[in-house]
Design a protein that fits this description.
Endo/exonuclease/phosphatase; globular; Endo/exonu/phosph_ase_sf; 12 strands; 446 residues; metal-binding; alpha+beta; Deoxyribonuclease I, Chain A; sphingomyelin phosphodiesterase activity; 11 helices; 2 domains; magnesium; six-stranded mixed β-sheet
Length: 446
């Protein structure tokens, strides 16, 4: 790649041990595909939970991406990894405060510890660039229920704050990953507006989010609308029961690459990042096999660096005069989400808080019932006339003890944790909303 371009790839590898189909074969195929090209400068992978898989990919791309980081979080790991052509000088992982419930073993989000991982790289032209990789909470979809969607809202708010803070510290920001949200949803609005992130796909496909009267073909959905998940073209999605949104648009755009300039009050002109190319990749099947590389497709974006005053070279993306003026000096005010958006978030989180309170009370009541049944079973078991009944009641008491302990943890420890986390964000948003109202009043006065 040219030194004036940064090529970024993001891919959800679907690499959960014992659960993901054809995991070993697919990881080998992904690594081979990446090793046969040197077109990427930064790669962010999600759902690469097995460390041996990460090591295999790292060794395969080490010749042109010598710097890499595997991130740990939760009980099973975050499943996040970043590979870079440029030196990594710092790393960080920030687990999200809400990641589903521990009782939701099938969903598994609580156990893997969804998080925002990042590295700071040193680029020869841009200087420090903070690269984020994330995978937001999965459940909830576009239709709720609200108590599930609220966890992803919290994820989005916390991620947006991290990206915004990186830019306020004077760094360029590149943020990629599986956000488990289509572009028009509230979590994506929060991320774009609060962190002032630019969606690379929309730069090169500006009408991608426009409503359409017709359902696109599966290939049009990929090429024109950036569909990366639940596509009929993907062997793991074909024939799967999909929701209304996925059926209407032949899949969903859930994977993104964002970028932004540093936020600075200096009038010094800085190099400008602009997306030159963005396309969905890894859409073909694994060579020699009848399955896809993952249940997601990958997304590639090429970010072009325009240095102030430098004449454009052949093949450069076209920068309008308005675009150059807008980005050459940074705004004096930080971007903000709207009051309406903040209000909607508060309402959603408050609804989740009420649901969590009610659920915790029911779980604690079930714990009390389990204790009473254990006492009753212990007393009654001494009067059993038949010895063969004892093993049955032993199993029953083991089940009651497990259920009671689980309900105690769910209802008291986790329930209180969830409610506190929700209230922290609600109160933070209330203060934020008051600040917006004060700023709006100040502008009207002056």
């Amino acid at each position: 790649m040219s030194e004036n371009e940064v090529a970024v790839l993001t891919l959800n590898c679907w690499g959960l041990k014992f659960v993901s189909k054809n995991r070993k074969e697919r990881i080998i195929a992904i690594a081979n595909e990446l090793s046969n090209t040197e077109e990427y400068d930064i790669i962010t992978l999600q759902e690469i939970w097995v460390y041996a898989d990460y090591e295999y990919v790292r060794e395969s791309v080490a010749k042109y991406l010598p710097y890499a980081k595997f991130f740990y979080s939760g009980a099973l790991g975050a499943g996040l990894a970043i590979f870079s052509r440029f030196p990594i000088i710092a790393t960080e992982i920030q687990p999200y405060s809400l990641n589903g419930a521990p009782i939701d073993v099938v969903g598994g989000d609580w156990f893997v510890g969804k998080a925002a991982a990042s590295v700071i790289i040193v680029h020869p032209i841009l200087g420090e660039v903070q690269v984020f990789n994330t995978h937001l909470y999965a459940k909830g979809g576009e239709d709720g229920p609200e108590h599930n969607r609220a966890h992803r809202l919290v994820n989005a708010w916390e991620f947006a704050k991290l990206a915004r803070r990186a830019a306020e510290l004077g760094r360029y920001v590149i943020a990629a990953g599986d956000f488990n949200s289509i572009p028009t949803t509230l979590p994506m609005t929060i991320i774009r507006e609060h962190a002032d992130l630019t969606d690379s796909w929309l730069v090169t496909h500006p009408f991608s989010n426009a409503p359409s009267d017709t359902t696109p073909s599966p290939q049009e959905a990929i090429d024109d609308f950036g569909v990366t998940a639940d596509s009929p073209v993907n062997t793991y999605s074909a024939g799967k029961g999909l929701d209304r949104t996925a059926r209407s648009f032949c899949g969903k755009r859930l994977d993104y690459i964002f970028y932004r300039q540093p936020h600075t009050f200096s009038s010094t002109e800085l190099p400008v990042l602009h997306c030159k190319e963005s396309r969905v990749v890894f859409t073909h099947e694994v060579p020699g096999a009848a399955f896809s590389f993952s249940d997601h497709f990958g997304l590639k974006s090429v970010l072009q660096i325009q240095t102030p005053g430098a004449p454009p070279s052949a093949g450069d993306a076209v920068f309008s005069s308005e675009s150059q003026t807008a980005w050459s000096t940074q705004p004096s005010e930080a971007p903000e989400i709207s009051e309406a958006c903040a209000t909607t978030m508060i309402q959603a989180l408050t609804a989740c808080y009420r649901f969590s309170k009610s659920r915790a009370q029911k779980e604690l009541a079930l714990f009390v019932l389990c204790v009473m049944l254990l006492i009753t079973t212990t007393v009654v078991s001494t009067w059993f006339p038949y010895p063969w009944m004892n093993p049955i009641f032993i199993l029953f008491t083991v089940f009651l003890a497990w259920l009671g302990t689980t309900m105690l943890y769910e209802g008291f420890i986790y329930g209180q944790w969830e409610c506190n986390a929700l209230m922290n964000v609600v109160e933070e948003l209330e203060v934020y909303k008051q600040g917006l109202e004060l700023q709006s009043g100040s502008r009207r006065r002056y």
